[in-house]
User: Fold Cytochrome c domain-containing protein from Entotheonella factor.
Amino acid sequence: MSKWVTTGVVIGWLMLGFASTWATADNISPQAVIGWKLFFDPLLSRPKNTSCATCHDPAKGYGDGLPLGKGAYGQTLPRHTPSVVNLQNAPHLFWDGRVQSLKDQAIVPLTNPIEMDMTPPEIVSRVAAQPHYQRAFAAIDVDNIGIEDIVGAIVAFERALVTGPTVFDRWLQGDKDALNAAQKRGRMIFFTRGQCAICHVGHNFTDHEFHNVGTGTANDLGRFVITQQPEDQGSFKTPSLRNWKGREPFMHDGRFASMRDVLAFYSNPPAPQVGESELDPLELDDDEITDLLAFLETLNGAWPDLSFYAAAWEKLISP
Ligand code: HEC
Ligand code: HEC
Assistant:
């Protein structure tokens, strides 16, 4: 036990660093303001009915609240729509990590025939035909709008999607009264007996690695699809647990409607359908689950403040 306690303390200490800046009207870049407009603009999809925000809806934790995503023509996508906050330092994107930067990621949904179904030249001509985008880009010295300017703006907006400090952040910074008794017990479970921090570690509670927790299926082999390495069968990217509340359902296929369902799963993980699960059955009792849940609640901070963007946009495009 004491080895686990030490590990927990060391891990907890390591979690102090790497916070990104909270975006405000005073520090937001004009590029991010243009990105905000583009992120919410259905003009970027062929039938003009779907924006990034249709699927990454701020009111739903920047996801869509559905088990599996839904494309511009109503098709069901193969995976659950993840949140897009706190991705500033993410080395791999998508559940299988097939893309390494936000820049390379954004073009994927834009051009996927079952998502937004556009081509780069079509996107450019639609955006460049709008006087307000012409004025906005001219304000950042772009007179000849190209796809990299459009993607660059979307990425600048995504990079500004930082969530606010949490109760647990306050505790880490030395406020020992920030956690109540149940939350403190839950913290011990998270970092020791529950083994959660083996994978959900660091400022955003993810190691940015791929693991098999027994959720892969014959239909979705996860990371294996990209690497073809047998050991990657059934592995998915560890999702962040920062600001989990509001982005239910959970997992790459949205199989769990609530955090309680997730904890019941970790307590008694079923046999994996593909590959070998890395999980040990925890057999948490009801009190432990309640405490763990109490701790997990302390990982939720404010969602990004978008209230200043509309005024910033108006200012940017005013002559
Ligand atoms: C039709 C719904 C839909 C639309 C529209 C959409 N996305 Fe997504 N997005 C998804 C799904 C589903 C995934 C996960 C796919 C996977 O992992 O295979 C995803 C994944 C992502 C990720 C990776 C997050 C992570 O943690 O790995 C980012 C970033 C992202 N989308 C940004 C965008 C941007 C920017 C746009 C607009 C240009 C956009 N998305 C449009 C459904 C959508
Ligand atoms: C061996 C690594 C590992 C361990 C240990 C682990 N997780 Fe996970 N966790 C993952 C991976 C990988 C996923 C994604 C699986 C998927 O999408 O099918 C995940 C998914 C989740 C999700 C869903 C989040 C979302 O956005 O969909 C939650 C919540 C979660 N884990 C909480 C926990 C808790 C609580 C513990 C400890 C009881 C724990 N995990 C232990 C690797 C791990």
Observations:
- The beta strands are 210-211, 236-237.
- The first helix runs from residue 2 to 14.
- The CA atoms of residues 47 and 72 lie 7 Å apart.
- The chain has a mean pLDDT of 94.
